[in-house]
Design a protein that fits this description.
With 311 residues, the chain is an alpha/beta fold. It has eleven helices and eight strands. The protein has one domain: Thiamin diphosphate (ThDP)-binding fold, Pyr/PP domains (Rossmann fold, 3-Layer(aba) Sandwich), CATH 3.40.50. The strands form two sheets. The protein has a six-stranded parallel β-sheet, sandwiched between helices. The protein has a two-stranded antiparallel sheet with strand order 5-6. The longest helix is centred in the C-terminal third of the chain and has 24 residues.
Amino acid sequence: MKRPDIDLATQLLYETLRIRLVELRLIQLYPSDRIQSPVHLSIGQEAVATGACAALRPGDLVFGSYRSHAFYLAKGGDLRQMMAELYGKATGCCGGKAGSMHLAAPDVGFMGSSAIVASTIPHAVGAALAARRRHTDQIVLAVFGDGATEEGVYHESLNFAALHQLPVLFLCENNGLAVHSRISVRQSYDLLEHADAYGIPTRRCMRGNDPRAVHETVSAAAVRVRAERRPMLLVIDTYRQMEHVGIGEDHHVGYRAAAEAEPWRRSDPLVTETELVARFTPEILREIDDAVAFAEESPWPGADALLADVA
């Protein structure tokens, strides 16, 4: 939700806070069973979405993963429709059929997300091929986690994008985890070196909870991809504060210690920028209240919708 009354740095914080507060409300709502699907929360990772999407043009496209509340909102997806989708209501962005893991808002360039790991990466590459063949200056952002890079389709997509010199920006949200498995026990390769083997330029941002740092990194990459019409890989280091799926924390499980979160929490701008957070929280909460009321009052899909949009 772009605001003309604030500068870019403040806008980035506003968007990051908005996503955080939306997901905190989902945590409150979830035990009521109103939300009709599992949720993969972005708390701790919101800045990746806000920084990245602010670096894109309105006509650029984004393909997300199952953890895409943040990217849906940052790209301009309607909050009312998102909330209604989570409720399974007919007014949801996908008619109540998609749920949390399959959000889409193609009208603003958020082309979709999927519960199948890495499955939207080739979709992004295909969209970039279309952009090249149409001779447009559009670029495509493919968003995925570090675990997705272990899928065969990721390697095939890098190869195809490099071979055909496609304007796709691969963005890895690197939280170092695939569910409960650390990257050190899963990968024999380095993400940057691996992409370099395909001739794909790379860049890393180690401050993935700072939307300004992410924005600077993605902006420079987007300019390069748009001008050179060739792929690039960004690795954004970040930290997932909540459990892999669900609304709780999971440090008690034993695969990571609570102390690991502390450096990320201390440098979190939503913790340090207390004045701006206090300034914007009331209006964002009013917007969230409105979205929840919209979802509560919206109708359920009827029987006539059962086979709609089914090929």
